[in-house]
Write a structure and sequence with these properties.
Helices cover about 10% and strands about 50% of the residues. With about 300 residues, it is mainly beta.
């Protein structure tokens, strides 16, 4: 993230990517190329149909309720094991026609703590590709995050999870390197009512130890979620990731995206999965960062 006042160019590049809400994209894939693959992605969502038990290759395979499975996947503290691969393309805004890629590998694994309590572990491993000056690129791993939630094992009217979020200084490239060990509280609330799955996640991580660089990880994350399930595994989602980087200057702290997503839960070759596409426009973003984001997701699901 960049300072509002003039800074050396290298310093601007380093501060620009401290903000966790801003995620880089792949070059030479440009935004125009991404727009060309949109029809193919939508066609894939339309063509791949949920496979019912009578359509399965093995007659003994249990029937899959795609809508029920979709709702489970929308609960971040449920009993469903999921392995999402998230491809985030950011462009526009102060980036112009440049596009940057962030690929998040985010396995979510629930554990039985006691008969009454579960623990949900969610790890976020970011792979970054950041364009530099004069056509140069920085590619590598970003800071890995771990989120742990304790949640009741028995479902309730309002599902909740309380725990902590941790950030580790694992970045291997300069533009996203923070050198900060950080931790803080995290809260999840979920309400399922009819076709809707409503909820939200809030976390705040503060620096515990730092390598001495001017940048530190001091990040607030707010992620509201409104999911409407049409049936047959189809769902419309509103789930922007709003962030505030308290280490940045006033006026350059907030990233506020607004947009919609479409997902479909299917069974392919006996493997339940969720396919999704979403678009967000940043109505507020730090100077020097992207103005819009296009996201593709492929999530492998492991029902219990």
């Amino acid at each position: 993230m960049v300072n509002g006042s003039p800074l050396p160019r290298r310093r601007q590049t380093k501060r620009l990517y401290t903000e966790r809400g801003y995620q880089p994209m792949l070059e030479p894939v440009t935004y125009l190329r991404v727009k060309r693959v949109l029809p193919c992605t939508v066609a894939m969502l339309l063509v791949v149909a949920p496979v019912r038990a009578q359509q399965a290759a093995q007659p003994s395979a249990p029937a899959v309720d795609a809508t029920a499975l979709a709702k489970q996947s929308q609960n971040p503290v449920g009993s469903l094991v999921s392995v999402p691969f998230q491809f985030n393309f950011n462009t526009g805004g102060d980036l112009g026609e440049r596009t940057l890629l962030n690929v998040n590998f985010q396995p979510v694994i629930p554990f039985r703590l006691t008969d009454r309590w579960n623990v949900i572990a969610r790890t976020i491993v970011p792979l970054e590709s950041v364009p530099g000056d004069a056509g140069t690129r920085f590619s590598g791993v970003g800071d890995i995050q771990l989120q742990l939630f304790v949640t009741p094992a028995a479902p309730r009217a309002i599902i909740w999870g309380l725990g902590g979020a941790f950030s580790f200084p694992t970045a291997t490239i300069d533009p996203v390197e923070s050198g900060t060990w950080a931790a803080g509280p995290s809260l999840v609330l979920v309400k399922m009512t009819g076709s809707f799955v409503l909820g939200g996640l809030v976390s705040q991580i503060w620096p515990l130890a730092d390598a001495g660089d001017a940048r530190e990880t001091n990040l607030l994350t707010i992620q509201p979620a409104v999911n409407f399930n049409f049936g047959h595994g189809w769902a419309m989602a509103f789930s922007p990731v709003i962030t505030a980087n308290w280490d940045a200057p006033v006026g350059d702290r907030w990233t506020v995206p607004v947009g919609l997503g479409l997902t479909r839960t299917v069974v392919f070759n006996h493997r339940p999965m969720n396919l999704g596409i979403s678009y967000n426009y940043n109505i507020e973003h730090p100077a020097g960062t992207a103005g819009e984001q296009l996201r593709f997701t492929v999530t492998l699901l492991y029902p219990r």
